[in-house]
């Protein structure tokens, strides 16, 4: 085992270089740029080492188009004998850059032991770490049993439907094919993430009647109706959710309660193109749409979650004449949590203790990630998120990942491979 850890140390520069190469490909989602480029980089690297590499386009999946094809890459190396398959799954897409950067968001700059760039933490650093860990393990244990897989998949930042969901539907995460999955999301190197809360996205539309803006009494303002909905949320729904608490080890502490985010609100005249220089027309808005992002706990039932919103809307309807509304489901995901005694949990827990000298903390993510598809579609329960990076840095300006953290996580991953494929 000492030789394995020493060789990880020897690959420090290689880990830095690979992370920088990945960051410098601006795989922005939306709309889904340069997905093929990053998959091709991984294909060339792993293929040159004898791995079987498959490029898979999620043809027809949500978001896929000829202009922005949803490309995924899956690399597999078979061992010398029969055994389990350990799969490292990372998403290659990154969110919009946003304002406030003091460094090149796609420069991959190394400074003071940190690599900066959009996606450095979430989660190209984790992807690079898993690749280096696997390469070192294979070099030290060429006669291992079973198989190793590494995938880089699309669209996790927008639901994963062009990535892991598409692959799971086609059997890539079938328990007969893959037995252990590690998703290197940035949950901190001394944490093992067992799962995530549930989510229900929906649109609430209030309906009105159009009229001339100078005579609003002849119409019915849908925006005013939505204002009453938001007021009712503040008065009854938000306090109700804040009072619910879970036994799941969700982090941070505020996410141990149920939450609801108002994601967007649109009412009245549509926003015109940027080159339009005229004034808006004088109309009473006849519709207003609000998008909600409801995160719920493993103790809650999805029917109860939806019923609470319907009851809130009915309370508003009872107080407002001519109040009409519609609720449209967008998507929903059930909470998931891998048992603490699952093989992959115990294996990584022991490896963390061996590398860091302390036990890993078990946590649950406040938001969903691609484990939802591996669990729900693939029916593979032996899955965790474990990877380097500080979760709070995800989606922030000047996002970075620590090289030392990646090195420690690479050691944990390599030791876990040794435990699962050589013992």
TrEMBL record:
Superkingdom per UniProt: Bacteria
| Keywords recorded for this protein, A-Z | Amino-acid biosynthesis, Cobalt, Hydrolase, Metal-binding, Zinc
Citing just one GO molecular function, the answer is: metal ion binding
- Which reaction(s) does the protein catalyse, per the Swiss-Prot or TrEMBL entry? N-succinyl-(2S,6S)-2,6-diaminopimelate + H2O = (2S,6S)-2,6-diaminopimelate + succinate
Cite the EC number: 3.5.1.18
Q: In which pathway does it act?
A: Amino-acid biosynthesis; L-lysine biosynthesis via DAP pathway; LL-2,6-diaminopimelate from (S)-tetrahydrodipicolinate (succinylase route): step 3/3
Which cofactor(s) does the record list? Zn(2+); Co(2+)
- Looking at the record, the residues that make up the Peptidase M20 dimerisation domain are 195-315
The top EC class is: hydrolase
Q: Which GO terms describe its biological process?
A: lysine biosynthetic process via diaminopimelate
The family note in this entry says: Belongs to the peptidase M20A family.
- PANTHER family, per database record: ACETYLORNITHINE DEACETYLASE (PTHR43808), PEPTIDASE M20 DIMERISATION DOMAIN-CONTAINING PROTEIN (PTHR43808:SF8)
UniProt protein name: Probable succinyl-diaminopimelate desuccinylase
User: From which source organism is this entry?
Assistant: Jannaschia faecimaris
